[in-house]
Amino acid sequence: MRIRGSTRLLAVVGDPVAHSLSPRLHNAAIAALGLDAVYVALRTCPDTLDLVARGVLATGGALNVTVPHKRSVLALLDEMSEVVRRTGACNVVWGGLRGITGDNTDVEAVREAAARLVAGQPVRRALVIGTGGSARAAAVALSDGWPGCVVEVLSRDARRSRDFVAWAECAGVAAEPADGGAVDLVVNTTPLGLSASDPMPLDEPGLRRSGAPAVLDLVYVRHRTRFVRAARAAGMAAEDGRGVLVAQGAASFRRFLDVAPPLEVMRAAVEDALGG
């Protein structure tokens, strides 16, 4: 329950989280609508997730959740949307009369971004790099957006890859370990690329072997990641995570504040921060 007369506290929790543009995006929207709220980034380790989340919610606030908490945050929820049940991942949390509620706005945002990239072409096979909450959201987005699509999962940990395939079967997603063959779309869901010294999620020979006409990198940095630049240099349609950020942020904003989000304001705030 919100404390009467108090400024609404909204936050994104994760680790790392300093790079997040969610505060910039949401605060621009809050200012444009003249709302009494503020959005902050809170670096939160797994051991303090419960304490930080419940503290923000106790003030009447709400949360976005990012790496590495999108799956572990489910333990806090009293109620969850069907998409959270299906993905086993949650990126938006708020309180109410029914207790703590969670939803996942990543699925729709990833599906929209992927659809723009493939521009009407079929996605029969897609390579998803990573096995975390964002990877699950991407897999469901691809499966629902292109029925019959087979999701290949690429992970450095064979056990995580097997676990992902097992989860996918329960979620109604056709998935299998990546075999290095050709695909129609590559989606990076790992944080590789946040630092300039990071290796690419998929090296350039692997990227070329994929034959993918389109690449979506959920990481966003100023002037785009090296992965996106390499894909474009290879003639692929490629984009970073800024469009996904705006789409999922706008959906979160609506859940937080029950008002229509000013999309162009949010988009402009992100583009101003990241450049072309």
Q: Any overview of this molecule?
A:
With 276 residues, the protein is of the alpha/beta class. The protein folds into two domains: 8-104 and 244-274, Rossmann fold (3-Layer(aba) Sandwich), CATH 3.40.50; 107-240, NAD(P)-binding Rossmann-like Domain (Rossmann fold), CATH 3.40.50.720. 40% of the residues lie in helices and 20% in strands. It is built from ten helices and twelve strands. It has helices at 22-33, 49-58, 82-87, 106-118, 133-145, 158-170, 204-210, 226-233, 242-257, 263-274, and strands spanning 8-14, 37-43, 62-65, 79-80, 92-96, 99-103, 125-129, 150-154, 174-177, 185-188, 214-217, 237-239. The strands form two sheets. Strands 2-1-3-5-6-4 form a six-stranded mixed beta sheet, sandwiched between helices. Helix 6 links the parallel strand 8 (150-154) and strand 9 (174-177). Helix 4 (106-118) packs antiparallel against helix 9. The longest helix has 16 residues, at 242-257. It is globular, with a radius of gyration of 18 Å.
